[in-house]
Amino acid sequence: MEQGDEKLDVIIFGASGFTGKYTIFEGIKLLDGLRWGVAGRNRDKVRQVLGEVEKKADRDLSEVPIVVADIKDPDSLRQMAERCRVVINCCGPYRFYGEPVIKACIAAGTHHVDVSGEPQYMERMQLEYHQAAQERGVYIVSACGFDSIPADLGTVYTESEFDGVVNSIETYLALDSKEPFAGGAILHYGTWESAIYGLAHANELRQLRTDLFKTRLPHFQPRLKDRPVVHKVAHPAGWWAVPFPGSDRSVVMRSQRYFYDTDKKRPIQMKAYVAFQSLLHVFGVAFVGIVFSILCRFKFGRQLLLKFPKLFSLGFTSHEGPTEHTMENSEFSIYFKGEGWDKEEKLLEPNDQYKSPPTKRILTKVSGTNPGYGATCVALLLSATTILKESNKMPGSGGVYPPGAAYAKTSLIEQLCKNGFKFEVLKRSK
């Protein structure tokens, strides 16, 4: 099938990459009933990946349309975007490859979702393309994978279950395996590369945020303070936690900013942590993190990190990525510790301050399996289909949004729960 044929509902771009391949596999089920195709710069490679997925899924994919599109060829990107209603963009690092696809989608009037965990990219896209996307009636939603659907929609879910006013939420991410770790990579090279360039350009964020948000949020009391760099937590019981360096907090706070600006809702303060079973794990990760952060500052250091990912990640990253066995046996849980006030204590204005400390608490949890790739691809696909089916429940008529702001009023959480995720309340207390 060639590019001039019937319009598709969804195109998976970057189909021959690691994430693209697993998105195709999950898409066989989640895109059932929709017209969908795949795209990449090399038709033969894309066809080869389709053949691999065919064998794994035991499904005939010979009729799946293949569209040739190349990041370096704007015309091909425009033709791809014109061919469908939503582009699922699996082609990262998005710092280098994301913007041309977004430009093509806006020009074509086509929605766009991706799995970026790169705050600089996401916030710059919001700054530069939000108005254009609104004018074209196009939704551009990043962070639709493990970074940061569980954290952002988990915050939305926690607030919906709180029945009051939430002042703050602390999240604790715990990764575990169904069986003892037997060695081998748990991250694909593409994720490693994105992290390197994200940290290297972290200094861009301050100015970006000044340009993106012309006014600062009010300082709500009580302020949520940082925990000690290393501290013990009750959930998971007995584990040790350190600050989480991923994009969860930046994504959640963008959603909270949207709710404040649009709905005049008191924003939730949020801090993100990652938990480990022992101090030995903490020290190992800290060692890698310190070396990583130092080398990221220099061009030569970044070249070393990119050339020797296995060495500098202590074997946890490779060009091949994790094996099927490793992915299928990995699990994640994010615990949300919320504090606030009962609904009877709600203030008249969102800027009003409480004169008493929080009186109510909640503990919720979002969990699932294969966070890096399986859960990521499921969340990505459902983010795309939700736009197709429930755009009337999304903000305005288009724009660039984080997932919490985009999908808060849709059934995405319900759909995630039907497809491997679990959102649950563990405890309520006063």
Automatic annotation (TrEMBL):
Transmembrane segments: 279-300
GO biological process, one term: glycolipid biosynthetic process
Organism superkingdom: Eukaryota
Keywords attached to this entry: Membrane, Transmembrane, Transmembrane helix
Domain Saccharopine dehydrogenase NADP binding: 10-141
Keyword Membrane recorded: yes
Any one annotated GO CC term: mitochondrion
SUPFAM superfamilies in the cross-refs: NAD(P)-binding Rossmann-fold domains (SSF51735)
Keyword Ribosomal protein in annotation: no
Pfam families per record: Sacchrp_dh_NADP (PF03435)
Recorded family membership: Belongs to the saccharopine dehydrogenase family.
Name of this protein: Saccharopine dehydrogenase domain-containing protein
Organism: Anopheles darlingi
Organism placement in taxonomy: Eukaryota, Metazoa, Ecdysozoa, Arthropoda, Hexapoda
